[in-house]
Structure formats: C-alpha cells, structure tokens
Amino acid sequence: MAEKSFKYVIVGGGVSAGYAAREFVKLGLKPGELAIISKEAVAPYERPALSKGYLFPESPARLPGFHVCVGSGGERLLPEWYKENGIELILSTEIVKADLAAKALSTSSGDTFKYQILIIATGSTVIRLSDFGVQGADAKNIFYLREVDDADKLVEAIKAKKNGKAVIVGGGYIGLELGAALKINNLDVTMVYPEPWCMPRLFTAGIAAFYEGFYKNKGINIIKGTVAVGFTSDSNGEVKQVELKDGRSLDADIVVVGVGGRPLISLFKGQVEEEKGGIKTDGFFKTSIPDVYAVGDVATYPLKLYNELRRVEHVDHARKSAEQAVKVIKAKEEGNSIEEYDYLPYFYSRSFNLSWQFYGDNVGEAILFGDNNPESAEPKFGTYWVKDGKVVGVFLEGGTADEYKAIAKLARVQPSVESLDQLAKEGLSFASKV
Ligand code: FAD
C-alpha cells in the first residue's frame, strides 16, 4: 500500500486528460506536479478513431498513430512526451474510492493518491443490454465499444467470422459508424432500432432519409420500430440469433450494441453537486467543491450561448473544456482571471465516404436544402434550424473546409431570416454570405 502526493491529479486518461496535460505544459508545469490516473493501459488517445479508422480492413489506425492531440491537428503526445515533461502517467489503475474532503483517491489494492487540485475526467461508459435484463445478453460475440480493448476484441471477431452476419443494435452515430465499418469488412449487416429514423436526437426525417437510403444501397438491411429482447447462443456460448420484440428473429455471428452512454460519476456521488446526470460546474469547470474541477463528458456546465445548463458528450467539448479548466487553474495561481467558457456545440461523424458536421442547436423549425438524394454521385445537403426568426443550428453533409467554417460562423452569429422559403432556396449560399 503506497501513498503518493501530487499538486494536480487528473482522474481518467481519455481525451480530456490528454488535452489538459498539453495545456499544463504550455502554461508551465514543473516535473512531478501532475499525475494522470487511468484504468486504460495506454496513454490518452483520440477515442472517435475506435469506430472509424480502427476498424478498417486495409491500413487500420493503430496506436501510437492516434494519441492525442492529432485529432485537432496538434502534436501527437506519445508516452515519452509525458516522461519528458515530468508527468506521471499511472496506467491500468482504476480509482475505486474518492474522498474529496480528504483530497485522496484510492485503488482496490489500497494505494492512495493525494492531490491539491483534482480534475475529474472519467468520461462515460456504455449502457449494456444486460442492465435492462435482456435475456442472453452476456453471450460471446456481443460487443460494446468504448475503449481500445473493446475495439481489439471486435477486430478479432471480425477476422474470425469472415463473411458472417452482423447485427447492430442501435441507430445512433455509433451504430451508423459501426454498421458501415462491418459492411466494409464484408459482413452481412442488419441494423435494428426502435425509432422511426436513425439518430433522432439530431437528424430530422429528411436528413435520416438520406443516410438510410445510402446504407440500403450499400446492402445494409435496416429494421426500425422494434428492439432486441433476447439472444440465443450455441453450445460454445456464442451468439447465434437476435430475438426482436416484433417476433422476428435474426441470424447473427456478431452483435454490436450502441444504445448510448452514461457519465461515470459514481465515485463522487453524495460529495459533489449533480445536474442533468453529470457533475455540476460553473463556466470555469469548478464543481461545488473547492479545488475540484470536472471536464468532458461528466460535466454539466452553463452553455452561455443558450443560457442553459448542458452536458455534452462530444470530443470537441472534451478537448476545449479540459483546456479551459487548466487555464482557470493556472490563472488563479497567478492572481489573474479568464473569460467564462463560451462554447459553440460542434459534432461530426464519418462513415463510408460520407462526412457531416453540425454546429449550434437543433431546435425550432428545420429547413432542408441541397441534394439529399442517396443515389446522387456527389450528394451534398444540409439543414438550418430556425428559432424565433434566427438561424441557431446548421447541419451539412459533404461540405468543404471553407463551407464548414461558414456554417460554424453562422451558428455563432445567429442571423435573422425573413423567409424560410427563401432560406431553403438559397441553401448553402446563405451561410457563405454571413
Ligand atoms: P473519455 O475519453 O471517455 O476518457 C475517460 C477515461 O477515464 C477513460 O480512459 C477511462 O478508462 C478512464 N476512467 C474512468 N473511470 C475511471 C476510474 N475510476 N479510474 C481510472 N480511470 C477511469 N465524439 C464526437 O464528437 N465525434 C465522434 O465522431 C465521436 N466518435 C466516438 C466514437 C466512439 C467509439 C466513442 C466511444 C466516442 C465517440 N465520441 C465522438 C465521443 C467522444 O469520444 C467523447 O465525448 C470523449 O472521449 C469524452 O472525453 P472524456 O475525456 O470526457 O472521456
């Protein structure tokens, strides 16, 4: 049982932790001041790669290729970088108890880490079908995807079940990305989700119609309006069939489940204020406890632009909130102050040769523009969301770098629109004018 003390401890070694470490070094860090404690066995990496390049059959992405901060065009922080900067990277180490009053974290083997300042960056975990008691959900070859270990298991199964049948449970972006990845690996793919269209939290029926049509053209079978209620397996315990609520039964060699995530905050329950399922922070990512910050997926913070508390599970926010918290910590030490976090929500996804970006808020009336015909050689379309006469959100598929820059600006500026018909007619050129 060992005890170690650090000035700063980051619990969790994912996207936020990596970007926070870089910011600490940028602003001045002495050797031995910072420790990152992670239950993963590898240095922080760009998690979105796991459902994209990591699963490609040809030249797949592999570590160390996608350690942070390559995802935002920055320097790649290899494990040596942490050593060179005197940062202790404590890997394969799960914190099982946090005592915020004593400023101490401990592991199951009884090791203790003390800190002066703590950054909570534990991210999310997947929601499992076994959490709802779905029968047979613990069969072999039923996968979830959150960490690189999960992705390795899926890659092995894809190799073992060549040309087999895959069922994707869930129609969110993870389901859509995984459906594409398995199809590219030559599996026979069926997607199942209960909603009337895919990604209903963001997509309108018009947006979803394009992706569903495109996926069907690629040979992916889509079953909507029902859910998986059970699994049968063979004598090896490997999944063989997915039973659906509507009575159908689907053959399956591999099942991948993407039905959402849940922020990992149980370590801090009862010790810190919560809000909307996350740890409540202010616009400086300070929690209700002095010297304790929360960033990334776990933080519920004031989204200044919309004057509302929100929790955001997107990589861009994980990076920026981590940088903000470190700036706040360093400014406080130097007796300075900094501006409150003023975030413009940004989210993206890629699958097949498709790629989209979304900025802002998807509330109000949705106006579809452009060519959303899935048969088109080069489809390019988008959607504006208009609330109280102002454009507050924009989605664009197939844009150029400049066009994405233009829609980001638009969502920030929120220009007024006089006529929705005119907006639909102008399409993307409306964004270019702002
Ligand atoms: P994470 O990156 O999840 O890191 C949390 C870390 O904490 C992990 O290393 C975990 O092991 C560790 N940890 C947790 N509990 C403990 C503990 N008790 N002790 C020690 N360590 C602990 N977002 C997008 O915007 N676009 C995308 O295309 C996209 N694709 C994604 C694809 C996948 C497969 C996944 C899983 C997520 C994707 N996301 C995407 C979401 C994005 O990756 C997350 O929002 C982001 O990683 C959150 O960063 P974080 O630092 O808060 O948490």
TrEMBL record:
SUPFAM superfamilies for this protein: FAD/NAD(P)-binding domain, FAD/NAD-linked reductases, dimerisation (C-terminal) domain
A GO term for molecular function: monodehydroascorbate reductase (NADH) activity
Gene Ontology CC terms, in alphabetical order: cytoplasm
Cofactors that this protein relies on: FAD
Protein family membership: Belongs to the FAD-dependent oxidoreductase family.
Record organism: Cucurbita maxima (Pumpkin)
Domain FAD/NAD(P)-binding: 6-321
Keyword Cell membrane: no
EC number of the protein: 1.6.5.4
Monodehydroascorbate reductase 3-like C-terminal domain ranges (all copies): 344-431
Protein name: monodehydroascorbate reductase (NADH)
KW Flavoprotein (keyword) present: yes
Keyword field: FAD, Flavoprotein, NAD, NADP, Oxidoreductase, Redox-active center
Catalyzed reactions: 2 monodehydro-L-ascorbate radical + NADH + H(+) = 2 L-ascorbate + NAD(+)
Gene3D superfamilies the record matches: 3.30.390.30, FAD/NAD(P)-binding domain
Pfam families to which the protein is assigned, alphabetical: MDHAR3-like_C, Pyr_redox_2
Functional description taken from the UniProt entry: Catalyzes the conversion of monodehydroascorbate to ascorbate, oxidizing NADH in the process.
